[in-house]
Write a structure and sequence with these properties.
Blueprint (H helix, E strand, L loop, with lengths): L3 E4 L2 H9 L3 E4 L8 H5 L4 E4 L7 H14 L5 E5 L11 H16 L3 E6 L10 H7 L16 H13 L7 E4 L5
Parallel strand pairs: 1-2, 3-4, 4-5, 5-6
Helix pairs in contact: 3-4
């Protein structure tokens, strides 16, 4: 598939281009930079960092996509239990973005991964010292998955038709 990568950093864009990757420079928080980056784009993989600006970042991309007039499809990485009344702020922010996306009228697919195995790396010191990973889930279990697994699902959804309007909850093989 032809891919265009968006980065905020012009030097990173140059390095990507030197490796044969099409790269655009834009900033999710500077809406005026997004239109040139989206020129000719048919499908958008929308992944935003966890931050207070997350809703604004995603909303700006969705608005810029609508303004193209081409109705590009958006594949959005959300979280498993995105909801306006979720106990975790990150899940509430993702619910806000999902609402903006649904209201946009653009075709979309939502990927809702459970818990990334890579996030457990922060627990390395306690694993080393105590052989334990602490999570805020009492006696519950997590069906963690790797970021690569999410990438494989995203690649399929991005390159195949037939996933519009669907929500895929992604989990690991066992809790």
């Amino acid at each position: 598939a032809d891919v265009r990568v968006l980065t905020r950093d012009a030097s990173k864009a140059r390095a990507l281009r030197e490796r044969g990757v099409e790269a655009a420079v834009a900033d999710f928080l500077q809406p005026e930079t997004l239109a040139p980056a989206l020129e000719g784009v048919r499908v958008i993989f929308l992944l935003t960092p966890i931050s207070p600006a997350q809703v604004a970042q995603a909303s700006n991309v969705i608005a810029a996509a609508r303004e193209t007039g081409r109705s590009p499809r958006i594949v959005r990485v959300s979280v498993q239990k995105a909801a306006h009344d979720a106990p975790m702020r990150v899940a509430r922010r993702h619910a806000e973005v999902e609402a903006v996306l649904r209201a946009s009228g653009l075709p979309y697919t939502l990927l809702r991964p459970q818990s990334f195995m890579q996030n457990t790396l922060v627990a390395a010191p306690t694993v080393r010292a105590e052989g334990t990973i602490y999570q805020p889930c009492k006696d519950g279990r997590l069906a963690m998955l790797g970021a690569r697994d999410v990438g494989e699902v995203a690649a399929t959804v991005l390159t195949e038709a037939g996933h519009d309007g669907q929500v895929f909850t992604l989990t690991g093989p066992a809790a």
